[in-house]
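ESCALATION

Customer reports they have been waiting on this structure for their group meeting. Please prioritize. Original submission:
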Amino acid sequence: MDSLGWFGFSASALGMLIGGAVAWLFCGWHKGTPIIFSLSSGMIFGLAVVEILPESMAAGGWLLTVIGLAAGYGLYHHLESMWHRVVVVTNRKNHDAWIHSGVYLLFSVAIHNFPTGIALGVNAHSPLVEQLGLAVIFHNIPEGLAVFTPLLMAGMGMMGVVLGAIAVSIPVGIGALLGSRYGADISWLSAVMTTMAVGIMLTVAAKEMLGTALKETKMIDCLLLSMLGFLSVWCFLIFL
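Update from on-call: job pushed to the front of the queue and completed.
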């Protein structure tokens, strides 16, 4: 990776680490799968609706957005069938659900981070590149919070947060390198990959998180907590 790639990677990793640190404090305060999953699902819906989907539609239009969402939904179900055939995690139901959701979210964020890097690379010679890097940091904080909350609840330590943040930030550096070299020629790929990531995120949020929470508590409680998670991300993204 060149200097721009390292810049994008560092900005992404820093944002994810901050989000992971907040999640660590958050998990130490709250207890219980329904609360954690309801809030996290709302955060993911907030990220998708407020930030990611509008960016994708602006870059690729409605058609590529629909194709990407459908591809993400299909990819989730393909991975789901593979997961149940080859993975046995623990004998604890809640921990399995947390690990399951966290791994899928890490995967979807890694996919989403590649187009983020492309956008950074396309603007490599813009005077706004430093501001874009700052935007990557702030936008990755709620992603880190949503991704690492279930994994921390499953017992993962802060070293796991560091390694996870590094892993999902590598695509930012690679995308920045390709974006600076090929620019608009791969803008369509950026749009499809972004919405594919959203398709996985929304499926995980609805099925894995909100679905699990609804089995263990009242629907009104889940919806209120999800709305709280959505509004917290909305306020964060709008005002910062």
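Sent to customer with the following note: The mean pLDDT is 79.
Escalation resolved.
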